[in-house]
């Protein structure tokens, strides 16, 4: 769809959702490995360590990679290397790269890593899961875990029944692929998937996180995006009409308040993108960590930042503003 809003950083929503729901991701995609882990102990994302071993990643390609420290039930520390192959085309040297990353982790940190890959491409026949070579006196066989999102096409009923956040992630991914040249059908599925978040009775935080993922990957042309929000407003009005305010139960009140939150989420998302664009024009490219801090701001805080940035001349001004805001919040 040439009229779609283009987003080149399609790895970003995967990184965000993996960070927000890492235990659920492991339980959904790799249950055997998840069963080894003591989830009562906190896991740790080793972003700096991964940057050290991934310094030679192929230029121009984008990956959603996470190196995570977890603790086994027996009490031992293990590292997990989670790779999400976001770009929708097979890669000839993928298995070699998985081996290379695993070897670099061991070489650099003396830590064996469990290597796992989530394949998001559209080729049913591409299923890399090992790298090997064999000579008379030397041989190697490296095997890594893979999950193919296309396989869930035949498990749709199972996805619909699941309340694991990654059921929604997979559904959104598959329907995005299937509607690449069908914008109206995509709009229908986007509405259906977001409405499902409310119908599941999820916490507001979970609705926000999953909404962000669905909204990011299921891009619509501007006109259809406006239609989408109109449909959603009508859905909200129907819910209110079915439940008179004077007799609404606490659960019904909670559901309706989340539906109303939908438009605020969309507006807040737009405000974030606008503020980020304005900041980059004022002070230049922003570090990823700074972008995350801005994305964590509330709507009121974003509006305050939008006013303050008019006086910024360098990235230091932004950092000072964020630090001052953090100090106010803590006090």
UniProtKB/TrEMBL annotation:
It comes from Brasilonema bromeliae SPC951. Residues 266-322 form the DUF4351 domain. This is DUF4351 domain-containing protein. The lineage of its organism: Bacteria, Bacillati, Cyanobacteriota, Cyanophyceae, Nostocales. InterPro entries: DUF4351 (IPR025587). It comes from the Bacteria. It holds the Pfam family DUF4351.
